Amino acid sequence: MHTRSRRGLTLLELVVVMLILVALAGILVPMLPGMLGRAHTSTGATNMDEINKLFLTHYAMEQGYPTGLDNLVNDDDDQVFDYLPGKLQAGLFTTRTLTTEEAASLIAAGVTYVYNLDKNTESPTFEPYADPTTREPVVQGLAVVQADTAAVTDALNTGMVPNPNEVYVVFGLGKASPVTGASGLMLEAPIHFGEDSESTPDKVYSRFGIVFQLTDADGDVLPVAKYAGAVAFHERGIVGPETPLEEFYAGHEH
After folding, report:
1. Domain coordinates of the chain in residue numbers?
2. What is the reported pTM?
3. Close Cβ partners of 34 (under 8 Å, ≥ 6 residues apart)
4. DSSP 175-190
5. Per residue in 82-105, pLDDT tens?
């Protein structure tokens, strides 16, 4: 005698399956923001570490750091780029006009030209340049972005007391730099995704920052600008690779 095979589930079985799925969702959904935050922090720390390795490798190979960085000023008024996260924090970013000695210091480090950014862009991360073929030579009188010394010290040298005589300037690692692309050491310039829905790459500049130290503890211009490290731009300030790692293991949602 042949028995007919069962097909499908009974109503009771379906109800049981739905209850299990609802229970799982109740467990996993509250964890999702934390999981996303931890992914954000871990990828940010990884990218900054990789950028630091890239710059040190480039210096060892070429006796200089990568050039063609994004100059984080507007192309037409030499003010801090309108789409830079944290721009509105008082004193965090200011513009600085390079002296002859400061320009020579950056050139000696390998930074010979930069790209200014378009404040009227509709894509501050992917198409930030008014004219990507036009580059600015690093010379006396060039306006660049200076980062607050205390903020840099906190981001890159945790535990050290900030010295107001030390001057730090910050650039961006964008797609125009020859260090990226098929012929460079990095295929694509990495993107730092923001901490909230308003900090997406189409709304803010989402590349990583590159910090150079121009003067020493006595305020004297360094013969060769010192590479201080890579940072991420946040609305709450700038952070180095250690901060995301601390937040990751602490379980913070940043």
Report:
1. 11-250
2. 0.80
3. 251, 253
4. TTSTTBSTTSSBSS--
5. 998 877 676 789 999 999 999 999
